[in-house]
Amino acid sequence: MIDNQTIFQTLVEIENSLRFLAANGCRGFAPTGHVLEKLEKWGKGREAFTETLESIQADLGDCQRCNLARGRNRIVFGDGSPNARLMFIGEGPGAEEDRQGKPFVGAAGQLLTRIIAAMKRSRDQVYICNIIKCRPPGNRNPESDEIKTCFPFLERQIAALQPDFIIALGTFAAQTLLGTTTPISRLRGRFHVYKGIKVVPTYHPAYLLRNPDKKRDVWEDMKMLMKEYRYED
Ligand code: URA
């Protein structure tokens, strides 16, 4: 007969082990067929082991993990379909995004919306987010500790979404995702891979607003993607 004290002690140890694993980046367990069968009998499925965009957002909460929390109005988590096959990743929220809590809703966002439409998609069929989720003061570049703090949440969003393609918009997104310092002008024009997902680096829409002659390159990149992407409708 096991006494209550032993059961309690065991539960505390299990909890501590799970907390340790979570703190070290473990986000779930790959269930074996046998375990899945049991779960299905209990009315649960594979989703019992995997994160959703909602659960990641809930974990992010009213994030105070870095200094950007002090200057922001709204956290810009991400927007679009949880079943999206195309994921667009920009740098970080600007003033309008910070006001609305949505990514790419300012002038650069309007251009991005037109690029998505030219690809015969709409914003609610894709997923749009950024490397960092809070606006840096005065739109300065994100600092390395801010990216280090925020990026794990984006990695979890990518893992939850499992898109077929990531379009990395601009130097920041492309270099952070691909772990490189190669300039965007040399990264664009071909596919790269992030954790098995095809990445298409291209120029940022804000850069296109200043350099409209580069729109042609972005369209070439999108055409390369569309050739590879099998539309279902
Ligand atoms: N620029 C970005 O990189 N992201 C936004 O959400 C808006 C502008």
Explain what the structure shows:
This protein has 233 residues and is α/β, with parallel strands linked by helices. Helix content is 47%, strand content 11%. It is built from 11 helices and 6 strands. The protein has a 6-stranded mixed beta sheet. A hairpin with a 2-residue loop joins strand 5 (192-194) and strand 6 (197-202). The chain is globular and about 80 Å long. The termini are far apart. The model has no long low-confidence stretch (mean pLDDT 91). Uracil (URA) is lined by residues 90-94, 97, 103-104, 106, 108-109, 130, 206.
Blueprint of the fold:
Elements: H1 4-23, H2 33-41, H3 53-60, H4 68-71, E1 79-80, E2 86-90, H5 95-100, H6 107-118, E3 127-130, H7 144-161, E4 165-169, H8 170-178, H9 184-187, E5 192-194, E6 197-202, H10 205-210, H11 215-228
Parallel strand pairs: 2-3, 2-4, 4-6
Antiparallel strand pairs: 1-3, 5-6
This protein binds uracil (URA).
Largest beta sheet: what is the strand line-up?
Answer: 1-3-2-4-6-5
> What's the average pLDDT?
91
Task: Give the DSSP E fraction (strand runs of 2 or more residues).
Answer: 5-15%
The percent range for helix content is 40-55%
Number of separate strands: 6
> What is the ordering of alpha helices and beta strands?
HHHHEEHHEHEHHEEHH
The largest pleated sheet is described as:
6 strands, mixed
Distance between the termini: 62 Å
Provide the gyration radius in Å. 20 Å
* Helix run count: 11
**Poorly predicted spans:** none
Bound molecules: uracil
